[in-house]
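Bench notes, afternoon.
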Amino acid sequence: MSSAEYADVNPMRKVPAIVHDGMVVTECAAICLYLADAFPKADLAPPLDAQAGYCRWMTFAAGPWETARTNRSLNIKLRAEVSGMVG
């Protein structure tokens, strides 16, 4: 798929993105949560009474963890007094 074709799927050109049944889903956590709901027989998610921790960690990985990983990859140094604000 070319860059232009991918921009039709995700105009931000951020990876990953999927198209399922004509719907575009972007962002890792959103894709995982979506696929778990779209394919319940695959047992990709825990039962509802055990989903609190599952949802917490799915979104944690997409928020603070990804930010911290990006900061490290870009060699961004944070002051100690603000480091807790960004993962």
